[in-house]
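Handout, page 2. Input:
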Amino acid sequence: MDTKQVKAFGTEASIEPLKGMKIERREVDVKDVEIEILYCGICHSDLHSVHNDWGGTLYPVVPGHEIVGRVKKVGEGVSKFKVGDLAGVGCIVDSCRECDHCHEGEEQFCDNGWTVVFNSPDKKHGGITYGGFSESIVVDENYVVHIPENLDLPSAAPILCAGITVYSPLKHWKTGPGKNVGIIGIGGLGHMAIKIAKAMGAKVTVFTTSQAKAEDAKRLGADEVVLSTDKEQMKNCPKQDMILDTVSASHDVNEYINLLKVDGSLVLVGLPNAPLEIGAFNVVNGRKSFSGSNIGGIAETQEVINFCAEHNIKADIEMISIDEVNTAFERLEKGDVKYRFVIDMSSLAQAN
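Output:
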C-alpha cells in the first residue's frame, strides 16, 4: 500500500522528551477517510504510554487519542463522510468486525482485540499505529464519528476519551432522575462525569481531597461535595446508587463501597498502577458490586458526542501549542490542569 510522510510529535524512548518527527501514513483505501487534525486532547493514558508505565510501549510512539479534525480526502467506497465534514477519532481505529461484540457495536470488547489509535499493531495494514499528535490521520470510516457544527471544537476533543469513558458506565448503570450518583475525583474524567450525570438528571455528589476543588465542583454542577478526608462528612453522606471512581492514583476504595446502597456499584474508570485491595465484608454486606468500565464502542461514542451537543456540555480546557507538550506532560503528572490540555495542531506546522 502506498504511504506518505507527515509531520508528528513523539518520542523514541521513555526518558526522552517529545519532539518533532516524520511518520508514515497510508494513502486512503476504499473505505478510508483522511482527516486534517485540528485539535487533540492530552489524556493521562498518553502520559502512561510515553513513559511505558504499563509496559509494552513500542518506540517511536506518537500519542493522542482525542482527535478532532476536518475530512480532507475520502476513499471511493466511503458513504458516511464527505470532504469538509467535521470528524472525530477516539481510541479505537479497527476491530475484527466479526465477533458478537463488534456486531453489537461494542468494539471495545472485541473478542479478537481492537486496534488502538496509537502504539498498536495494525493487523490489516501492517506496522504500528500513530496517534493524534500529528498533522493528519487515515482511518476506516466505520471508526470515525461526526462532530456537530454547534460544538466548540477544541473543548469537544476530550469527549472522545474522557467523555465516553464516563458516559458509558453512567448509561449502563442507568443514571437518571431519582438516582444518587457519586463521583470520586475532579480531573479530566471527573469534571466531565459531573456535567454528564447532572444532564442525565441524577443528584450528583462529588468526593474530593481538595478544598479548592470542592468549591469548583459546585461550579461544574455538583449538588453535594464531600471532603473525603473529613470523617464526619463521609459519615453523614447520603447512600449512593452508584459511585464512579475516576482516580488513577492508589487509594482506599473500601470507604466508598461502604457509602453504597444495597445493590449499589462502585465503578472504576481510573487506572491506578498498583492493585486495589477490597475488603470482603464491604461487598457482601448489602450485595454491593465493585466493577469497572473502559471507554465505549463507536456507536456509543457518537451518542455521547450528540448528547454533549444537545446539552451544551464541553470540557474545561487549557489550549496549548505543540511546543508546550512536554511542559503540559510535566504539569499533568502533578495534576496541575483544569481540566484537560488540548493542543492546537495548527502549531505543528511551525514546530521544529
